[in-house]
Amino acid sequence: xxxxxxxxxxxxxxxxxxxxxxxxxxxxxxxxxxxxxxxxxxxxxxxxxxxxxxxxxxxxxxxxxxxxxxxxxxxxxxxxxxxxxxxxxxxxxxxxxxxxxxxxxxxxxxxxxxxxxxxxxxxxxxxxxxxxxxxxxxxxxxxxxxxxxxxxxxxxxxxxxxxxxxx
Length: 167
Fold this sequence. Notes:
Rossmann fold; alpha/beta; 5 helices; about 170 residues; about 35% helix
């Protein structure tokens, strides 16, 4: 199984006057445009994706939509465990219940994705490995998603992803 973590693209700054519910805060127009280039790079490096799971927050779903439209990834299914209030172990359990083979992409938020990355590599209590906005990382294991049992295949910030697209 390959597990690809994708941090949502650049969103508007928190503003309780505009978005009293932070889950409704969207991507900026520039953030979405910049991520379109990164998504084209992800198409080249990630190959075929079997399942995309996204946080239900607007900015994550918008990022997943760009991945669908630009990279040709499947439409995202929402996974509540990708909301910032959950823990890495809850995400791993949810992924195990859905799929333990193929390529699964998770679209979510920091610090949760960074915490998940650390747990995938080194198990519970591992330090977080934060992703940049619009960045992605791929982990692999023969046994599926599991704490401390996955290997890092690649870790790419958005600047590198955009350079993977031929001019």
